[in-house]
Structure formats: C-alpha cells, structure tokens
Amino acid sequence: MARGKVQMRRIENPVHRQVTFCKRRMGLLKKAKELSVLCDANIGVIVISPHGKIYDLATNGNMQGLIERYRRTYSEMHGESSNHNKTQIIKQEVLALTHEIDLLQKGFRYMHGENGENDINHMNLDKLQTLENNLEMWVNNIRSQKMQIISREIEMLRNKEAMLQTVNGVLQERIIEQNGIINFSNTAMTPQAPFPLTMERNYYL
User: Fold this and answer.
1) Which residues, in sequence order, are CB contacts of 25 under 8 Å at separation 6+?
2) Other CB atoms closer than 10 Å to residue 200's CB: what's the count?
3) Is 31 in contact with 57 (CB distance < 8 Å)?
4) How large is the average pLDDT for residues 122-144?
5) pLDDT tens digits for 33-53?
C-alpha cells in the first residue's frame, strides 16, 4: 500500500504531535550519525522540544567544542571579508584622490605655462576641453565649500542674534524694575502739604 503524502503543517492533536516529534527526532539524529561515519564529518545537532527539553548530538568531541570551532571559523571568515572590503574601499579612495591631485597639478602647470609643449597656448581642442571640464569641477567644489562656510557663519550669526535678544530682554526687564523702585522711592519721600489751619469764630447774639 502506497504511503500518503504528509502535509507540512502543525499537527493539532497533541498526542500525535508528540509521537511524530519523537520519531522524527530519532530519525534526524540517526541520519546525522550515518553522515558523520560515511563522510568523516563533524556534525552537531541541537533539538529543543515544544516543552523546552534539549536534545543534542556531537559526533566528534562534545557540543561545546563544536560551537567554539564554529564561532572561531565564522569570525575568521567574516573578519577577513570585512578587512578585504575595507582595504578595497581605501584603495579606491586613494586612487580617486591621486587622480584628482594629478589633474590639479596638470591644470596648475597648464595655466602657468610650465608644461612646454603642453602649454595652454599649444593645447589642442580635446586638451582644452578636458582642462575646461576640470576647471569647472574645481570651481564647483570651491563654490560648494564656500557655501558651506557661509552657511555655518550665518548659523553662528543667528545664534548670536538670538542670544543678544535674550540678553536685551533681560536688561530691559531690569531697567523697568529699577525705574519702578526709583519712582516708588520718590513718591514716598515727597513731603505732603499740611492741612490748612482755620479759625472758627463764634458769634454770640
């Protein structure tokens, strides 16, 4: 009788699920042992049951030794890859900077006529076009740097303006307070005019 195809989904019946787990776990560990013997491979298998119980298998040595070996090999592989990538990036940056410096030096020599036959007066159309493109690139870089400096200075001036406005507000409040105290003192010290004395005359009939 042909065996039916097992559907790959969670088994809802807890008894059937536990029985399947035990059978599949034993089959997995058996296959791991066979692979280790047949191919002389170091194999480590860790299985955690639904209830949290741990089953492990280390075909050569112990599980801790295999884990440490895995970590060491993983770190070496990825460390070398990372260092290689960093080295390549640095090389590319150095090449780009070297090329830019070379262009700057050539442009400087061209503009000052220090290149003999490659003097600006003896350059053909292609060389002049290349020089023009490089000069435009340098001018754009200079303008970009200039705008960054101007933006920073504007931001600093705005911060100073805000600080001065705050200080000015505090000083105005103090002046108002001082004026109020002075006015109050002057009012208190001003002599009051005495009440007029009147004489009453009594007329007797």
Assistant:
1) 47, 49, 55
2) 4
3) no
4) 77
5) 999 899 888 899 999 888 888
| R_g (Cα) of the chain, nearest Å | 46
The number of C-alpha atoms within 13 Å of 115 and in the hemisphere containing its C-beta is 16
Cα-based angle 88, 89, 94 (whole degrees, multiple of 5): 95
Contact call for residues 70 and 64 (beta carbons, < 8 A) = no
Please tell me the distance from the alpha carbon of residue 90 to that of residue 113, in angstroms, as a whole number: 34
pLDDT at 68: 86
For position 84, what pLDDT does the model report? 67
What pTM did the predictor assign?
Answer: 0.37
| Cβ neighbours around 56 below 10 Å, total | 14
Cα–Cα distance measured from residue 57 to residue 31, given in angstroms and rounded to the nearest whole number:
11
| β strands within the chain, DSSP E | 44-48, 54-58
Mapped onto helix, strand or coil, the DSSP state of residue 58 is strand
Q: Spell out the alpha helix ranges (H) of 190-203.
A: none
